[in-house]
Amino acid sequence: MSPEYAMHGHFSVKSDVFSFGVLVLEIVSGKKNTDFYQSNHADDLLSHAWKNWTEKTPLEFLDPTLRGSYSRNEVNRCIHIGLLCVQENPSDRPSMATIALMLNSYSVTLSMPRQPASFLRTRNPNRLNQGLDAKIN
């Protein structure tokens, strides 16, 4: 769920971009974002991806079952694109058309991602939606 929707009930096409980024990172890591909230991990999925990215160890984020059967450049690019999609500010996220270009062409230069959005851990997901009136932009 995008931060702008979780915090303010605002929804836009960039909210879908955020969700797509989470999905990409879940596929690459082999972990669901919710797995982090149901365990004793200190980080959420986005923080875990960011930590590996900034420590220049993005392949440590990779699903262990994929090791040895992947293109290093493609995995790095998918993580990079995933991180661009989960930027806290919606205007910093690429459009879906741009994402399609990024995934299909190495000639498209990727900007450097900033630290992604993060959330306070809660064991009760219903608390996020209490009192929100959804607005579609």
UniProtKB/TrEMBL annotation:
Q: Which PROSITE patterns match?
A: PROTEIN_KINASE_DOM
In the record, what terms sit under GO molecular function? ATP binding; protein serine/threonine kinase activity
Protein name per its UniProtKB record? Protein kinase domain-containing protein
Q: Where is the Protein kinase domain?
A: 1-107
Q: Which InterPro entries match?
A: Kinase-like_dom_sf, Prot_kinase_dom, Ser-Thr/Tyr_kinase_cat_dom
Give the organism the record lists.
Answer: Glycine max
Q: Name one Pfam family in it.
A: PK_Tyr_Ser-Thr
Keywords attached to this Swiss-Prot or TrEMBL record, sorted alphabetically, are: ATP-binding, Kinase, Nucleotide-binding, Serine/threonine-protein kinase, Transferase
